[in-house]
Design brief:
Aldehyde Oxidoreductase, domain 3; alpha/beta; 286 residues; four-stranded antiparallel beta sheet; 41% helix; 2 domains; 13 strands; TIM Barrel
């Protein structure tokens, strides 16, 4: 179900943190001592990137013996990952694994909370995440939102067609752009054509023109509730998405407006999950 980050990505993360070895562990002379590392959630969470955190520890020379799957909902106090190894191996992978777990699980948890709330309003509503993740983190971000129950809105510019005002201004405006819809559909018969609008008037024009998805940007839930029935009257196959400023505080109101899709960027930004780590000496050789 979930993508797995390639080894090259994990090696890059490790190289950022330990490019020339671990000076502290080396100077203390404790590197060869056997030890156990344990990662434990300190709050209710949806965990993500546990598999990658485990592989990070393995690439440092540790042996993983317990690892929950990404997407698991856990309670405060749950152990999500543990491994044996030398102190040198465990200290080398400790922070890289923890940072990945906390940031990815934070995104997954925020996503899951919103998905649960809006599905209670409309079980068929789709929650999708934009491509506004921080550059360099897309693979982690996509895995995290999927672990929380959402899907990507657009993975990039190469696999979807979405007309913005920034496109239509080059064609003479929205009306001129809509005249190209038949040609677009002929050229890409397997693709959906999406058009973003900023008013009810523009939305109705787009619906009449026969687009597949109309995306209403930065409209209030109250305004959407008024225009959605009008759009349904124009087309029974049209999908209606709401985008712009949707977050945990207002997602329910947007779901109540009757739209089919909620498009969010807020999932990526917020507090990381709180995960505790213990590294303790053991009497068993790693």
């Amino acid at each position: 179900m979930f993508n797995h980050l390639p080894d090259a990505e994990l090696d890059r993360f490790l190289d950022e943190d330990i490019p020339y070895g671990d000076l502290t562990t080396s100077l203390l002379g404790i590197g060869e001592q056997p030890a156990t590392i344990t990662f434990t959630c300190r709050e209710n969470s949806i965990v993500c990137c546990t598999e990658e955190a485990a592989r990070i520890l393995e690439r440092c020379g540790a042996s993983v013996h317990a690892c929950l799957k990404s997407g698991s909902s856990v309670l405060n106090g749950t152990t999500i990952l543990s491994a044996h190894g030398s102190a040198a191996a465990l200290h080398a992978g400790w922070k890289v694994a923890l940072n990945l777990l906390e940031y990815a699980s934070g995104i997954a948890t925020r996503t899951g909370e919103i998905v649960e709330k809006v599905k209670a309003i409309n079980p068929n509503i789709a929650v999708v995440a934009t491509r506004k993740s921080f550059p360099g983190t897309k693979k982690v971000a996509v895995k995290a939102i999927m672990a929380g129950g959402a899907l990507p809105h657009r993975l990039g510019l190469s696999e979807s067609i979405l007309l913005f005002r920034q496109h239509t201004s080059f064609l003479g405006g929205l009306d001129a752009a809509l005249q190209m819809l038949p040609e677009l559909k002929r050229n890409v018969p397997e693709q959906k054509i999406m058009v973003e609008v900023e008013s009810a008037e523009e939305a109705l024009k787009v619906a009449l023109a026969g687009t597949d998805v109309v995306q209403l940007d930065k409209m209030t839930p109250e305004a959407l509730a008024q225009v959605v029935p009008q759009l349904r009257a124009q087309s029974q196959t049209l999908k209606i998405s709401a985008a712009g400023g949707i977050n945990a505080q207002n997602a329910v109101a947007y779901a109540q407006s009757g739209v089919d899709i909620l498009v969010l960027s807020s999932l990526y930004f917020g507090k990381p999950a709180d995960i505790g780590v213990s590294i303790v000496p053991t009497t068993t050789s790693p």
